[in-house]
Every structure is written in C-alpha cells, then in structure tokens.
Amino acid sequence: MSSCNTISVIMGDIVDQEVDAIVNAANNSLLGGGGVDGAIHMAAGPQLLEECRSLGGCPTGEARITRGYSLPAKHIIHTVGPVWQGGNAGEDLLLADSYRSCLELAMEHEIRSIAFPGISIGAYGFPVDRASVIAVSSIREFLQGTELLTDIRLVCFNQNAYDNYSSAVDRIFND
Ligand code: ADP
C-alpha cells in the first residue's frame, strides 16, 4: 500500500458514511431488496429506484453507479456479489470481480473515498472468513496501481464481520 492510501474497518451503518461513494450489495435486478440494499434505498429515497430502473440490471461481478440522492454520499456504486453455492461455482473469482469493478468505477468518477459493506456475506451466504480475505486482497491489489483512493472503509454491521475484516486487513496489509 502506498502511504497515501488508508484502509479502515469500522462498525457502523453504511448509509451514514460521509464519503464520495458507498457500495451497495445489490441483486441482479438492481431494483432493491433486503439487507444493506433495502437500507440504502430507504435512506436515499425513491429517486434512487427511478434511476436504477433505467440501468436494466447488472450481471454478477459487475457494478453500476448512481447518484446518492438523500444520502451524505454523492454516489452509490451498486455491485452484485455471488450467491454462495458451496465454493466450487466460481464464487471466489466473482467476489473479487465485484470489488475490482467497484474500484474501477470509482477511479473513472474521480472518487477519493469509498465505503464497502460485506458483499455477499449476508443473504448470499458467503462464509465471512473467506469473503473478508478476498475483499481485502482485491483491494490491496487494486491500490498498488493508484494513489488516488485515499480513504477506503470496510463498514461492518456486526462484531463477527468486524473481527474477520479487521484480521484480514492486519494480515494482508502488514505482511
Ligand atoms: P448479500 O445479499 O450481498 O449477502 P446483505 O445485505 O444480505 O447482502 O448482507 C451483506 C452484509 O451487509 C451483511 O454483513 C449485513 O449484516 C450487512 N448490512 C446490512 N445492513 C447494513 C447497513 N445498513 N450498513 C452496513 N452493513 C449492513
């Protein structure tokens, strides 16, 4: 990691993050759902759904960007992580694709600060120990090519997620 990049793991609600972009763990329709997706749509307001309707969905591993509407964040980057199917259906690569797609879109939009939820670790059932290592490794690899992203936050909604993402950051960034 360059000295200009900062990655942090925090406990909190992603909708409260004052960053250039928050990431939504959406589904293929991009038309809203439960979990973090529902919380983001609720907090951003109904104009978000209108803009999402115009996008025509999103394949797993890709990402799309919208405005943030009523959120403190200016943008929302919607990505679709893989549904866990036991680990032999390309889930690891698809999860890494999701993180990379979000970071690529962030670069295109000159985003400096970005907050991620634990993509796929909720309803999609990805084991959090494995997901956290993939998340942090993907971010680290991406950061080696840029100094523009100065504030990357991994926002955890429960203690178990916090413990897993924290230990992944400790191991992967301090090796
Ligand atoms: P997925 O379908 O990708 O698994 P979920 O929304 O079900 O997505 O869960 C992803 C993670 O987001 C879970 O760890 C869940 O606890 C967490 N989460 C749910 N609501 C919020 C929120 N408001 N802010 C941050 N994280 C949240």
TrEMBL record:
Record-level Gene Ontology MF annotations: deacetylase activity
Gene3D superfamilies linked to this entry: Leucine Aminopeptidase, subunit E, domain 1
SMART domains per record: A1pp (SM00506)
InterPro entries tied to this protein: Macro_dom (IPR002589), Macro_dom-like (IPR043472)
Domain of life (superkingdom): Archaea
Domain annotation Macro: ranges: 1-173
The protein's name: O-acetyl-ADP-ribose deacetylase
Organism: Methanolobus zinderi
